[in-house]
């Protein structure tokens, strides 16, 4: 008859296991053996789960490439965003239990509503998600894990088609010029200097030469888990550049600097004088769009209730549409593709050529007299 007895916890919802032994040593040996079996069973139950292999793929294949400098922070952010969508739906699921029907339903729901933006998801974003899914599944399969029998080519991408990027009109430009807001300075710089959003975030007053009418783009902001960080250079080597300072922007910046200069030196900053986070950027821009909508869509009548938002009566425009407008101004002032490529910071001349091709039907003679006047005065850029 066994002299020693104990119990081993087998897990939530399971009965404890009774362990007996003639000696304490014998009993403890059995305990260690049972615990090892429980641990192995627990690992086996999740070893084929999506979240486990998503993490292994990222840690073992993607992270080393980033640490070696082969991948940019923006690429890592894109991978993480896709993984977040996938893990939120399939995290605990064993890979082989995920059917094509399961995945297609996930894609269909994501196409209708993106939890990160609250809007329909673009085809490009879903294409990125499918790409990451394929790479994770392929990596698991190469490691002898049972995986689903479908690939991204079997999935229908029902994402929102790409929105055509167009320049904003003169009246829309006036909305920005005439509406003070904490995000107005960012809008003015993107509209009249063509900086990218990441470049505006890192711009300092020392980068603006008011004497020689130049803006030097040297750094940019990237986001590590939504936290902002500054780096030298930008999207590519061509992003480091010098931009002529437009008269209308020069006058605005000089006035703004007198009223809002911060000792940190950043031009567009958060309430503490530092870099804006990803959510800070979004809140500031959304607030600016709401302000413009109320002012020009509803005649300045603000909602009665604090959290009430009016449906948009004006066209919502993005930071990139302002940059596209600046490219249009370059075209209308006769800058050739090479000069515009350098000013815009494009790494490939094809990008600039494509923009100019789209603008070929933008006839300067069809412009309003006011637009023509501005091109020769406050919008005038030096070509030297």
Question: What are its keywords?
Answer:
384 residues; mainly alpha; DNA polymerase, domain 1; hpI Integrase, Chain A; 3 domains; 3-stranded antiparallel β-sheet; two-stranded antiparallel sheet; 14 helices; 7 strands; elongated
Mind telling me the CATH superfamily name of the largest domain? Answer: Intergrase catalytic core
Q: Roughly what fraction of the amino acids lie in strands? A: 5-15%
Helix content: 40-55%
CATH class of the largest domain: Mainly Alpha
What is the number of beta strands? Answer: 7
Any idea what the CATH architecture of the largest domain is? Orthogonal Bundle
Helical stretch tally: 14
* Integer tally of domains: 3
- What name does the CATH topology of the largest domain carry? hpI Integrase, Chain A
Mean pLDDT across every amino acid position = 87
Radius of gyration: 28 Å
Q: What is the makeup of the main sheet?
A: 3 strands, antiparallel
Order of helices and strands: EEHHHHHHHHEEEEEHHHHHH
Oligomer: single chain
Low-confidence stretches: none
Distance between the termini: 100 Å
- Provide the spatial order of strands within the biggest beta sheet: 3-4-7
What is the overall shape? elongated
| Computed structural class | mainly alpha
């Amino acid at each position: 008859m066994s002299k020693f007895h104990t119990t081993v916890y087998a897990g939530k919802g399971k009965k404890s296991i009774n362990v007996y032994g003639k000696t304490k040593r014998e009993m403890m040996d059995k305990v260690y053996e049972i615990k090892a079996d429980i641990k192995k069973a627990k690992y086996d139950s999740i070893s084929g789960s999506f979240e486990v292999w998503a993490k292994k793929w990222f840690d073992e294949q993607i992270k080393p490439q980033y640490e070696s400098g082969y991948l940019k922070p923006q690429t890592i952010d894109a991978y993480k965003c896709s993984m977040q969508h996938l893990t939120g739906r399939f995290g605990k699921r064993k890979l082989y239990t995920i059917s094509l029907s399961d995945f297609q339903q996930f894609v269909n729901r994501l196409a209708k509503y993106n939890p990160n933006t609250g809007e329909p998801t673009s085809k490009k974003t879903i294409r990125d998600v499918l790409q990451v899914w394929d790479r994770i599944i392929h990596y698991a399969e190469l490691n002898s894990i049972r995986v689903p029998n479908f690939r991204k080519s079997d999935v229908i991408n029902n994402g929102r088609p790409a929105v055509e990027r167009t320049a904003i009109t003169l009246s829309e430009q006036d909305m920005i010029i005439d509406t003070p807001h904490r995000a107005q300075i960012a809008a003015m710089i993107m509209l009249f200097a063509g900086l990218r959003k990441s470049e505006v975030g890192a711009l300092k007053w020392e980068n603006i030469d008011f004497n020689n009418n130049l803006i030097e783009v040297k750094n940019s902001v990237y986001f590590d888990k939504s936290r902002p960080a500054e780096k030298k250079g930008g999207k590519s080597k061509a992003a480091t550049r010098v931009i002529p300072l437009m008269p209308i922007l020069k006058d605005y910046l000089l006035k703004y600097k007198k009223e809002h200069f911060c000792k940190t030196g950043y031009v567009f900053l958060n309430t503490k004088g530092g870099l804006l986070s990803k959510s800070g950027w979004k809140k500031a821009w959304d607030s600016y769009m709401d302000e413009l909508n109320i002012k020009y869509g509803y005649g300045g009548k603000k909602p009665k209730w604090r959290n009430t938002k009016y449906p948009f009566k004006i066209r919502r425009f993005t930071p990139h549409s302002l940059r596209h407008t600046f490219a249009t101004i370059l075209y209308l002032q006769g800058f050739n593709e090479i000069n515009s490529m350098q000013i815009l910071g494009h790494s490939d001349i094809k990008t600039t050529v494509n923009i100019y091709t789209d603008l070929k039907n933008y006839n300067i003679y069809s412009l309003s007299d006011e637009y023509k006047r501005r091109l020769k005065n406050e919008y005038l850029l030096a070509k030297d």
